[in-house]
Structures are given as structure tokens and as C-alpha cells.
User: Which sequence fits this backbone?
């Protein structure tokens, strides 16, 4: 973020970003940063990073490695039946993007099922995973745009909420109770200086993710949703954003 952009951000938003980034740097809750690390390691780096490097990164967590190998050997991912015995084999046989999305899915699923993670965080992880799967399925059905890209973009639309629920839990719970629907944007701006989508975009913009992902992290006005859904000639980027737009978020338990 350049100096001019930073100066344009409201004071309350700057404080929210400061607190979130401080929490991320503490590494006390790794899930919210591991997703981005996986994307950064694999997305758009096929020409510069060797398969061994990518396989080594994913293999750092033995349980994730075993589950990826198992799923990659299933008929749905590997119709040729070629035997896959390592993450390196999986990348070669089923591709970088599918292995990346498998790793993200498993990480979200693990956190959704974990008893040691707060209920709100488990629900947000579930929402991110389901949103990604739904967006990918929509894109496969309509043959456009790239379903693997749609998965990542849709899953990351919950990233700002994950950050708030993790590092500003009490404030996030209060905001969720205070407003839903059209009132939610006003409530979030009053509480944090920006919306969850805007928070996710600000944080992820500094992590060298490709613009094809960052550009989809925007709030979609109701009128734009209607116009895009009715127009088969709408720009591809807007159709991707519409496919990735998350369903109504889970509310924290009270």
C-alpha cells in the first residue's frame, strides 16, 4: 500500500488493520495465515518454483499430506487410475491448482470440525469451504470462468470475517448482533472503519496474490447482482465476482 492510499483510509480502519496485522504476526492462530501461504506458494508460480518445492511445503503437515494423497487417488480426481504415492505425484497427475484447492479445503474442514476452535470460526471456515465449492460448481456448469480460480476467490471472501472473528472477536460479535442485511455495512463501518470484504482485500493486497483473485474481493451492490445475473454478456470478471459472492454469514452464538 502506498502512502497516498494509506492516508485515504479512515482512522478507525487504520486501527482495525493495525490490530489484525499485529495478531497475524503473533502466529497465535495460524489458520488464517496458512490459507494465504498455500495460495502464494502455488498460484502463478508454476514457471519459477519446482514441483519438489511445492510438494515439500504441502508435506510439512503429515495429516494434510496423507489426506491429499488419498483424495488424489480417488476416481473423481484421478480417472486414469495412475497410482499416486506422494504430493509430488499428485501435483504431476492432477495439477497445481487442484492440489492447492484440496489443501485449502482440508485446512478449512479441519478448522470447521475442530473442538479447540471457537464456534464462530468453525462456522466461518465451513462457510468459506461451501462458498468455494458452490462457486466452482457454478462455473463448471456454465463452462466459464475458471472453476479452480472461482473456488479460491469464493473461499477468500470470508477471509475478512475470519480475521475479525479471530483477532477482534468481541467487537465482531457485537457488530453481528447490531445489524444484518443492508444495515450490516453501516454497522461494520461504524465499528471497524471498513467492511469485512474491504478488510480482507486490504490485508491480502499486501501478500502478492494475483490481481485475478484480489479484484473479486469487492462488495456487490444488489442492483449489480441483478443486472449481471440477467446479462449473459456481462464482463467475465463480474460474473466471477457474482459466482463467488458469499451467502448470508453465520451469526455468532449468543
Assistant:
Amino acid at each position: 500500500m502506498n502512502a497516498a492510499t494509506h492516508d485515504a483510509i479512515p482512522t478507525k480502519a487504520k486501527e482495525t488493520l493495525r490490530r489484525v496485522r499485529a495478531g497475524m504476526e503473533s502466529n497465535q492462530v495460524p489458520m488464517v495465515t496458512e490459507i494465504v501461504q498455500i495460495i502464494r506458494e502455488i498460484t502463478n508460480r508454476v514457471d519459477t518454483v519446482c514441483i519438489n518445492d511445492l510438494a515439500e511445503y504441502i508435506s510439512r503437515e503429515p495429516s494434510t499430506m496423507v489426506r491429499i494423497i488419498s483424495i488424489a487417488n480417488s476416481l473423481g480426481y484421478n480417472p486414469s487410475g495412475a497410482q499416486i504415492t506422494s504430493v509430488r505425484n499428485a501435483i504431476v497427475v492432477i495439477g497445481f491448482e487442484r492440489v492447492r484447492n484440496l489443501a485449502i479445503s482440508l485446512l478449512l474442514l479441519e478448522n470447521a470440525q475442530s473442538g479447540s476452535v471457537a464456534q464462530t470460526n468453525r462456522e466461518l471456515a465451513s462457510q468459506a469451504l461451501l462458498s468455494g465449492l458452490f462457486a466452482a460448481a457454478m462455473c463448471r456448469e456454465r463452462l466459464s470462468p475458471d472453476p479452480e480460480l472461482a473456488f479460491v476467490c469464493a473461499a477468500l471472501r470470508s477471509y475478512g470475517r475470519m480475521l475479525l472473528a479471530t483477532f477482534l472477536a468481541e467487537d465482531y460479535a457485537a457488530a453481528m448482533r447490531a445489524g444484518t442485511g443492508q444495515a450490516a455495512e453501516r454497522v461494520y463501518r461504524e465499528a471497524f472503519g471498513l467492511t469485512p470484504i474491504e478488510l480482507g482485500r486490504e490485508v491480502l493486497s499486501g501478500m502478492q496474490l494475483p490481481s485475478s483473485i484480489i479484484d473479486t474481493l469487492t462488495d456487490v451492490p444488489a442492483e449489480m447482482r441483478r443486472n449481471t445475473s440477467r446479462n449473459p454478456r456481462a464482463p467475465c470478471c463480474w460474473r466471477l465476482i457474482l459466482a463467488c459472492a458469499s451467502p448470508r454469514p453465520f451469526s455468532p452464538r449468543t
Remarks:
- The first helix runs from residue 3 to 8.
- Confidence is low (pLDDT under 50) at residues 246-254.
- The chain has one domain: 3-244.
- The radius of gyration is 19 Å.
